Amino acid sequence: MTHLGGPGDDQAKGSGDGPEAVALEIADAVESLANLWSLSAQGAALRLSPHQLRALRALEVAPGLNLTGLAERLDIGLPTASRLCDRLEAAGLLERALHPRRRREVRLSLTAHGRHVLGDVAERRARALGAALAVMEPGERDALSRGLRAFLATRPREAPFPGDAAPDA
Q1: CA 57, CA 110: separation in Å to the nearest integer?
Q2: Nearest to residue 26, comparing CAs of 158, 147, 138, 157?
Q3: How far from the centroid of its chain's Cα atoms is residue 49's Cα?
Q4: Which of 5, 44, 111, 113 is the most exposed, having the fewest neighbouring CB atoms within 10 Å of its CB?
């Protein structure tokens, strides 16, 4: 992996602005962002693992998922998803309820406390990211924003999950 802006960089061979070189730079930036994300989430009153946060976020985006749907979205096995939900339910962050029309299906949803915890984590992450962006020059922030918008424009709105149909080409 390359290291941005330091002596002895593992620069990609060839053009410094080719897709492979830029991909290495972005990978470093994403790793740094993931660390910032994780550290800011750990500052929340309730410490949750990255898996637990991903599960809560998945339920925030798609309320009413069943256990199979959650497992697919997180790309984990059903037993792992069940234990994860057991811990989140015990912490008061999610609740299980029978599906109104399918008696054997259990729907998962966030509790008010779960939504509050996710909001707290999102707020902490936004502050941490804002502090990092504040030390950048305005032109650098603008360039980063334009680049991210261009990148997002090339991606599907929602990343496909295992078992989902591929987006039309």
Answers
A1: 9
A2: 147
A3: 12
A4: 5
